[in-house]
Amino acid sequence: MKRILSIDVMRGFVMILMALDHVRDMMHVTSITRQPTDLSTTTPALFFTRWVTHLCAPTFVFLAGTSVFISMKNKNNIVLSKQFLLKRGIWLVIAEFTLVNFGLWFDIHFNVFLFDVIAAIGFGFIALSLLMKLPVKAIGSIGLAIIFLHNLAPLVPGAEASLFKKMLMPFFAPGAYPFGGGKLFVMGYPPIPWLGIMLLGFAAGKVFTLDIMRRKNIFIKAGIAALVLFVVIRTLNVYGDSLPWGAQKNTLFTFLSFINVSKYPPSLDFTLLFLGIMLLILWGTEGVQNRCTAIAAVYGRVPFFYFIVHFYLIHILVFIMIFLQGFGVNDMVFGFNFGRPKAGSGLSLAAVYVVWIGVVAVMYPLCRSYGKYKSGHPEKKWLRYL
Q1: Percent of the chain residues past pLDDT 90, beyond the cut
Q2: Whole-number Å distance between alpha carbons of 303 and 8
């Protein structure tokens, strides 16, 4: 199978959105002190700036699984696919704690090791390499079971301080774990819930072997079904998310409470909502070829390259912002502050959007050039890891 345009377009679209979230997180004036989804302190504009980017991670992970299926079909060799997948998974975990962590924190001491989305995808690839001989339906069923049941993990019997719970819960829930030398390991993306999304994406790869009209029909039905199920489960407010919704100060904020679902870990409600939106976008972009889809596909063809480079680009802009606002090197605090002073630095939300557009614009020629180089040099096997 050749590359499928709608996958590249969808992935490129969420990568563009992803840059908005990272610019906001690293440069917005309140990002260090307040959560944008905290309804007691946020504004609708800030809330939606963060909320819309929730689409990125589940789409990225789902399509990573889909791409594995398509790659396996292209090679028509499960053994080779399994070996490559295992090596790529290990490489992604290593890259997370080196290239990505440094690009995020710019801390030469590496005081914080963050297990984030790239490591979660790497873990998923390793797990998927061990499941490759199972039927596709079985892999998809495991994925669905994880998505629907992982919210029960906190109910596993046993004392919270027990060794069993301490070993189990990092795979299901976020947490911070100090270790030697004052360093901290942060489980930001618990791997099991994200594995469920990847396995479902792998099984959905079969859909992309169908003709466009049949794919569109499946995407629209599945997307609507996921969103309806989300509304039903969320309305019941009993199971599906650790953050129940409730009446707020006005109708708009009550609606925000309803859609304010948990990403860490990705709850059942979160997954249904954002995979449902993803499926509807796939339905809308299947078979569409215009200037917008062509631009999005440029980013979508080189996702890991984009992910790494855009972090370093944004962090350079963070430093420029700090110095232009009158701070010096001695004011900089690394780690969770991204090098920003403890107070007084940052941009307005409007300025965040301007910087985001600039970052995306700068990344376009870089991604286009790298994409051409990568496609023009298939003999360079190391490029497959980037």
Answers
A1: 79
A2: 9
Token pair recorded at residue 23:
């610019």
Amino acid identity at 94? I
CA–CA distance, 179 with 190 (Å, rounded to integer): 19
Torsion of CA 360, 314, 362, 300, to 10 degrees: -50
Nearest-angstrom CA–CA distance, 269 and 275: 10
β-pairing verdict for 112-115 and 175-179: unpaired
Query: What 3-state class would DSSP assign to 175?
Result: strand
Burial tier of 315 (Cβ tally within 10 Å: 0-12, 13-18, 19+): buried
Cβ neighbours, 10 Å, residue 171: 16
Rounded-to-integer distance, Cα 239 and Cα 236, Å? 8
Each domain of the chain, given as residue ranges in start order, spans 5-385
Q: Residue 156 in contact with residue 171, Cβ under 8 Å?
A: no
pTM: 0.94
Q: Residue 256's pLDDT is what?
A: 98
Q: Is 224 exposed, middle or buried (0-12, 13-18, 19+ CB in 10 A)?
A: middle
Nearest residue to 311 (alpha-carbon basis) of 58, 100, 68: 100
234, 249, 259, 257: which is closest to 55 by C-alpha?
A: 259
pLDDT above 90: residue 336: no
